[in-house]
Design a protein that fits this description.
single chain; 342 residues; mainly alpha; 2 domains; extended
């Protein structure tokens, strides 16, 4: 009887040892599986994020290329849709209209110069008529009419200046991209098309227009000269001249583009240094321009009787207009002094 229970005891002893072993093995195995599961989840998330970033980059590049292509086509179509008859065509024969149209194209605005000027004249007349019907002083009507003409032109000027500045800062990257494309075996036309697809506006749009003009049958040299005349930046003229020389006499255009890119980068650094050194003069000009208006506004709050002659008497109106014109002249002179060409 005792011998029959010995195997059972040994089994119980082994079961007890297995149970104690399981108490150590199972938590360890569970921890390993948990760590493995967390690692798999993190790896899947990273792959998902990388695929998402890749998809967004592809969509962004595709959308940017489509935007540049559309902007270039609209610019070419606006050039063909210039009115030549009627009052708009008569205004279009004025000498300053081509310069205004060039400024509008440099600002990348969907406007035609002759139509814009006609609309501004109409708005100025409506503003003057509204002030007259409101029984306001004559100078209010003149000021409103003047604002209706000047403010849109000022907007064009500011937008043009900012866009040309962005284009100038894009040029080193543009030339480096073209240089890499040429070294990879692409032709000049394909390198220009690559720039139109990869770069943002304004460089992408302008080079897309060059590519479209080439596809429409224009020589690539003429298309580049049109871009130089349209942009009117000295560095672009350097680039076009280098391309014309290379097309006529040969040479390593990729190396020339690298040299131009380096020169432009150095000029941008020097311009930033000059701008930092002249910041005090420009700030002084702005302070001197704003200070009389601020002092007059504070004086109107403290002692309204002090400036009543300027606001109510005709001679005061003339004095205000003269002071404002002289303020503009002073600001222009200060900007001329601190504007150092690099």
């Amino acid at each position: 009887m005792t011998e029959s229970f010995l195997p059972m005891g040994s089994l119980l002893a082994q079961f007890g040892s297995l149970e104690s072993l399981a108490l150590y093995v199972l938590p360890l195995a569970g921890s390993i599986l948990l760590v493995f599961g967390i690692a798999q989840v993190v790896a899947d998330l990273r792959r998902t994020e990388s695929r998402r970033v890749e998809t967004r980059l592809r969509e962004r590049c595709g959308a940017q290329a489509a935007h540049n292509e559309a902007a270039a086509r609209e610019s070419l179509l606006r050039q063909l849709d210039v009115p030549t008859t009627g009052l708009t065509g008569l205004i279009g024969r004025l000498k300053f209209i081509p310069n205004l149209q060039r400024a509008i194209e440099q600002a990348n605005l969907p406007w035609v110069a002759s139509t814009l000027l006609l609309n501004l004249i109409g708005l100025a007349c409506l503003a003057y008529l509204a002030c007259t019907l409101s029984n306001l002083a004559v100078w209010w009507g003149v000021g409103a009419a003047f604002a209706m003409i000047v403010l849109p032109l000022l907007y064009i000027h500011i937008r043009r200046k900012l866009r040309l500045n962005r284009f100038l800062h894009q040029l080193p990257d543009v030339f480096e991209l073209m240089s890499q494309g040429l070294r990879a075996g692409h032709s000049l036309g394909n390198a220009i098309h690559l720039v139109s697809q990869q770069m943002h506006d304004p460089a992408g749009t302008e080079f897309a227009r060059v590519f479209h003009e080439q596809n429409l049958g224009l020589k690539i040299e003429d298309a580049l000269q049109n871009m130089a005349n349209r942009i009117q930046i000295m560095d672009v003229r350097f680039f076009v001249t280098a391309v014309l020389i290379q097309r006529s006499s040969g040479g390593d255009l990729a190396e020339v583009l690298d040299n131009i890119s380096g020169v432009i980068r150095d000029r941008i650094k020097l311009f930033g240094t000059v701008k930092a050194l002249t910041a005090e003069g420009r700030l002084s000009g702005y302070v001197l321009f704003v200070l009389p208006f601020a002092v007059f506004a504070v004086e109107q709050v403290i002692n309204p009787e002090y400036g009543r002659i300027l606001l109510e008497e005709p001679i005061g109106h003339y004095m205000l207009i003269t002071a404002f014109v002289m303020q503009l002249m002073g600001l222009a002179m200060i900007k001329k002094i601190v504007n150092i060409r690099v």
